[in-house]
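Sequence only, no structure available. Ideas?
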Amino acid sequence: MDKVQIVEVGPRDGLQNEKEIVPVAAKIQLIDKLVAAGLKRVEASSFVNPRWIPQLADAEEVLQGIARPADVTFSALVPNLRGLERAAASGLREVALFMSASESHNQKNINKSIEDTFPVLQEVAREALTLGLRVRGYVSTVFGCPYEGSVPLENSRRVTNALLEMGVFEVSLGDTIGVATPKQVHEKIGALVKDVTTERLAGHFHDTRGTGLANVAAALDEGLRTFDSSIGGLGGCPYAPGAAGNISTEDLVYMLHGMDYETGVDLERLTEAGAFIQQQLGRELSSKVLKASLACKTV
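Reply:
I predicted one. Tokens follow.
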């Protein structure tokens, strides 16, 4: 069977957008449940300045409390050398850098131009590699920007290549505001995989307009085998007004298994993790598989 890697980003990309701060104990339980379901790559938190994202100010406590199986890779977002220092002290083996393909979103998100962001991330990547850490890269707004609209392919190509030259092992291409369609995915990812091997690219789709899973299917056709997703469909983007959550991990796993892809994830245990965080948040999450699973249990 063809294998697909799933990078679970709910504990970071999902919870950072919640209005209420989820308690440390609940975050630890959630991550442990995700790992118990078979997920091998989990983005556990972020070492961005707590003033920017207070929802993740407890990164050290969370990472100290979770179980650390040897076969699971935990990572966190780092914006600068200070964030990297905190991540390394927490015992992480992988960190992630982030920037945007569109100038306006990069300014809103990082408060720097794209050109001024490159040397900052290059410094962080160099130090991380020196420390023996793996470095992942995120490129936001590949398919559209909330401030500029359509984003030229050359923007994404330039940023992707710059990150790869810094030494990142993988670049996650993000549809930050959920505007992509399968046609656009075929066009843009089809072009980018010609520059880069498919093993070094991942897809990060949001479901704002209901096309998230269709876009995954299109990316699979182009050779991608790594996708980011969020438990329950948690997420959004604080700098992208109206952006809905990431594609749901439950929905993604259900679709992939139905297409005969192997993920190594136990869907039943995964929905238990979704039910847990839904209960903690006190509201219904968007995952359709989670809704169906819970509905079946009440019949």
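DSSP finds twelve helices and ten strands in the chain.
Hope that gets you unstuck.
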